[in-house]
Amino acid sequence: MKINDYPAFNEKWDKEKIKRNTKDILKEIGRLQYKMYAQAKYSLLIVLQGMDASGKDGLTRGLLKYCNPVGIRVRSFKKPTPEEYAHDFLWRVHKDVPGKGEVTVFIRSHYEDILVPSVEGYIPKETVDKRYELINDFEKMLEHNDTRILKFFLNVSPDAQEERLRERIELKEKHWKHKDGDWETRKKVPEYLKVYENIFMKCGQIPWHIVPADKNWQKLYFVAEKVLEALKNMDLKWPELETEIFH
């Protein structure tokens, strides 16, 4: 799966029509998520990966707009803490997978523990290479436990990424997002994309979805459609009444 084969922007999509359809989809996601929470049998893990400024945070806000906060968790994975380093690399991830009835969004995920050490080289290659199969086994275990996993790569073009990184410098309300290191990482984008393509190939048993991410309305629509489809494919039912009052 070559990332360059996938567009970061789809010129054929009608913006107003897509935005209307997206609102209906998001409301239906909210209804089904509430039913899933009540049934407490299935769970949904949404994995969002992408380069800096690909819009993972904004997508998460839009996607969960009509959901019940009680059944939602969002986990943003950053550089491991000393405590996390002291455990196996999946320890911090496993603690935050969704419980029965929950939807959890990972903003970055266990795949960072392949991406960053592969490019930066601070972990031996043999160690990193073993992680592909460990992740496959981990995800199989989650699905065996009735957790549906959706994996998305937000495909932002170099021009759109640069524009968004500059906004973090120029707009006061976005200063908090700025990190000098993001510009250094940007120089290594080709290396990161090459590792991503390895991930898609070696950890593709649960398929990856390549999302056009230059326009927020396209990104949200694409992901929302996949989430709604996953919820519809679950055998969601309202639980039966449990009472002995009338017996």
Describe this structure in words.
With 247 residues, this protein is α/β, with parallel strands linked by helices. The protein has one domain (11-232): P-loop containing nucleotide triphosphate hydrolases (Rossmann fold, 3-Layer(aba) Sandwich), CATH 3.40.50. The chain is built from 10 helices and 5 strands; from the N terminus they run H-E-H-E-H-H-E-H-H-E-H-H-H-E-H. The chain has helices spanning 15-39, 56-63, 82-85, 91-94, 112-120, 125-144, 158-170, 180-186, 189-202, 216-232; strands at 43-50, 72-76, 103-107, 147-155, 208-212. It has a 5-stranded parallel β-sheet with strand order 2-3-1-4-5, sandwiched between helices. Helix 1 (15-39) runs parallel beside helix 10, helix 2 (56-63) packs across helix 10 (216-232) and helix 5 packs across helix 9 (189-202).
Summarize the entry for a quick read:
The protein contains ten helices and five strands.
Task: Based on the coordinates given, report the CATH architecture.
Answer: 3-Layer(aba) Sandwich
Q: Identify low-pLDDT runs.
A: none
Count all strands and give the number: 5
Number of domains: 1
The global form is: globular
Counting helices, strands and paired strands, the structural category is: alpha/beta
How many helix segments?
A: 10
Percent helix: 40-55%
Summarize model confidence as the mean pLDDT: 94
Assign the CATH topology.
Answer: Rossmann fold
Major sheet details: 5 strands, parallel
Task: From the structure above, extract its key features.
single chain; 247 residues; alpha/beta; Rossmann fold; five-stranded parallel β-sheet; 5 strands; 49% helix; 13% strand
